Amino acid sequence: QVPFGLKLHPDRKHLIYPLGSFIVLKRIEDGKLEFLDGHSNNVSCISVSKSGSYIASGQVNFLGFEAPVIIWNYAERTIHVELRIHNTKVESVAFSPSEKYLVTLGGIDDCRIFVWNVETKELICRNKATAQGHCLVVEYSKTDDTLFASGGSLTLRVWKFVNERILPTNCWTNMLKRYVSCIEISEDNRYMYCATSSGDIMKIDVEGKALIICGPSKAKFIRGINVLKLLESGDLLVGSGSGILALCSKTNFKPMIVKPANSVSPDRKVQLENAVTSIAISEGGEQFYVGTEEDQMYRLRFKNFTAELVSTGHRNAVKDIALPHATSKLFATCSEEEIRVWMVGKPKDQLRITVPSTTCNAINFMHDDCSIISAWSDGNIRRFGMKGQLMVVINNAHRQGVTAIAGTKDCKRIISGGGEGKVHVWELLPHTHQILKIMVGHRRPVSCLRMKSDDKECITVSSDGFCIIWDLEHFHARQKIKTDTLFRTVCYHPDGYQIVTCGTDGKVIYWDVMGGTNIREREDAETGVYNSIHATQEGNHFVTGGEDKRVKVWDYMQGKITHISIPAGAVITCTRICTLNRILVSTSADGGIWLWKFPHLASSS
Q1: pLDDT at position 328, please?
Q2: Which residue in 179, 206, 198, 2 sits closest to 93, CA to CA?
Q3: Rounded distance, CA 370 to CA 432, Å?
Q4: WD repeats: which residues (predicted)?
Q5: 331 and 388: one domain?
Q6: Which of 186, 224, 238, 444 could form a disulfide with 197 if both were Cys (CB 3.0 to 4.6 A apart)?
Q7: What angle do CA 538, 544, 550 make, to 5 degrees?
Q8: Same domain assignment for residues 452 and 495
Q9: CA-to-CA distance for 563 and 161, rounded, in angstroms?
Q10: According to the model, what pLDDT value does residue 581 have?
Q11: Does residue 131 belong to any structural domain of this protein?
């Protein structure tokens, strides 16, 4: 979702992109990842210097707070300097061709342009970004340290950097009013190409600061142009909001058609699944990479212009993880209106299930691993087969949406929690379903539901501050637990005699199931709020994740933390330990899915 966020390093060996508050360096050859961690909030823009020695990144922040720009030393993977002057958001950053200067642009609440000396780490000069409208992007000349351009809503300017001052000149666009989304300047600094939200491209004379041509005149790109790249030939690579990626002619900006040779497709236009937000290309490279707003990454070759899907991901926060019971090679995740099934070690989803205009709140595998049950905000429960086919729909299962779900080992019952606080028990019949019992106890949405190993009990927690243990044989509440916290998550110890809760007070609390009494408490002040907890099958360890962005592994008997992960790019939303303890999966609010090697093997327990 970060404009121009996907970059190809000049060494052609690494891809660079933001993930939450991180900058990710991904080695193309083997997929090895490195992380640059320094921002306190989501990264909003990124730029790589011409030689690749430096990376610059800006971030968003809360209204009224400083939004820093960080210049990274690429070789050492360290912070070169942190620049704190913009307010709320950094909109765009760009290096000069000599890498001596960096220009930074503030967001709508800042609306200022600054020029920095990279070597001395000092501010050189500043100016207001625009007299009217809102500035969105800055682009430096490829060969001249004294020239850069800016554009946005109702603004397009060419800037000269002389005598430690930056002087703007507005460009004449012949009464055309355009929203400029991307700018490219030619090598000889004669022309400037500006992509617009109207779906056309403006060619500007840099010296005269005037419009030369605007095209294509008729067949404009639907949903506008998000990104363009100027090639050595003078032609343009264009990525649109409708997912069209096209190689366009430098004369009329129409998609090119070449004569077929060696079975190469003549069409230099390809339809991708979602809006294009980034095109990553290096000088002299035979291939390039494209990123979309739905977190998909494609690889294309100039020779045949065929798109190869490299990796996929969630665009929004991941709400839940589901693990099959018989294998550790597979897992599923849900986010907004989709469910995805993944193979461990594969960067692309193996199955994607989408239900438009509703949100999936929770998922679980049925115990036979042949289907996935899911809880949706439209109040329905949906059961899908492992090929994505819809098997069962329980309509209007809860009046205020289904918020939690689990199944029994015999695959004959589903237990669900709803937004109104009720817990429903459903019986699955060969060709239909029926409700067995409605259990009332919570007054607010059920946020977590867990089954006991013998299926005779389940436990729920709610934002009303109560944790309730339910008898699933007689359908009543056995225990109702309340303490000075809002419970967020809970898990059973595998023997079924104890439960562990986490909440907003940063405490991990052990409870006796029979008496509902507090056995012991462990407090981790650094975490603050816990969002997830999950225990291993043998019960020797459990994992937690929360607001501090770290996954923590605990020894169950000692109640001590044994391992702490590096921080994720955003708040941890869910954690799960796969069968046999081989893999630990965690998800975060930025859509990230993190796979960790679990430090305690089941065989050594």
Answers
A1: 83
A2: 2
A3: 18
A4: 83-126, 395-428, 439-473, 489-521, 523-564
A5: yes
A6: 224
A7: 135
A8: no
A9: 51
A10: 67
A11: no
> Across-strand partners of 415?
406, 425
* Domain identity same for 562 and 424: no
Phi, psi of 173 (to 5 degrees): -115, 20
Q: Which helix (H) or strand (E) holds 414?
A: strand 413-418
Strand arrangement, sheet containing 54-59: 43-48, 54-59, 66-73, 78-87
Tell me the residue length of the chain. 605
User: Is 76 contained in some domain?
Assistant: no
- Reference 452, options 470, 429, 475, 433; nearest CA is 470
Structure tokens at 429: 């019949």
Kindly list the strands in the beta sheet with 487-492, ordered across the sheet, starting from the edge strand earlier in the chain. Answer: 487-492, 498-503, 507-512, 518-523
Distance from C-alpha of 438 to C-alpha of 404, rounded to nearest angstrom: 15
Distance in angstroms (rounded) separating the CA atoms of residues 489 and 362:
13
Residues with Cβ within 8 Å of 331's Cβ and at least 6 positions away in sequence, in order, are 321, 322, 323, 324, 341, 342, 344, 576, 578, 585
Decide which of 482, 509, 530 is a domain's last residue.
Answer: 482
pLDDT at 605: 38
Range of the domain at 438: 315-482
User: Closest Cα to residue 552, out of 507, 526, 561?
Assistant: 561
**467 shares a domain with 530:** no
**521 in the same domain as 583:** yes
At which residue do the structure tokens 């939200």 appear? 197
Q: Tell me if 186 is assigned to some domain.
A: no
Number of domains in the chain: 2
Half-sphere exposure of 9 (CA within 13 A, CB side): 20
Q: Are 581 and 600 in contact (CB under 8 A)?
A: yes
The predicted pLDDT at position 580 comes to: 74
Token code pair at residue 3 = 């404009």
The answer to whether the beta carbons of residues 206 and 190 sit under 8 Å apart is yes
Q: Which of 418, 452, 482 finishes a domain?
A: 482
Residue from 186, 229, 191 nearest 212 by CA: 191
The whole-number pLDDT of residue 604 equals 43
The CATH number of whichever domain residue 557 belongs to comes to: 2.130.10.10
Interatomic CA distance for residues 200 and 222, integer angstroms: 9
The whole-angstrom separation of Cα 303 and Cα 247 is 12
Give the CA dihedral 419, 424, 426, 432, nearest 10 degrees.
-50
Domain check: are 493 and 472 in the same one? no
Same-domain pairing of 323 and 462:
yes
In a domain, 295, yes or no: no
- Residues 523 and 499 reside in one and the same domain: yes
Q: What pLDDT is attached to residue 258? A: 60
Question: What is the C-alpha separation between 417 and 487, in angstroms, rounded?
Answer: 15
- The residues of the chain scoring below 50 in pLDDT are 261-264, 604-605
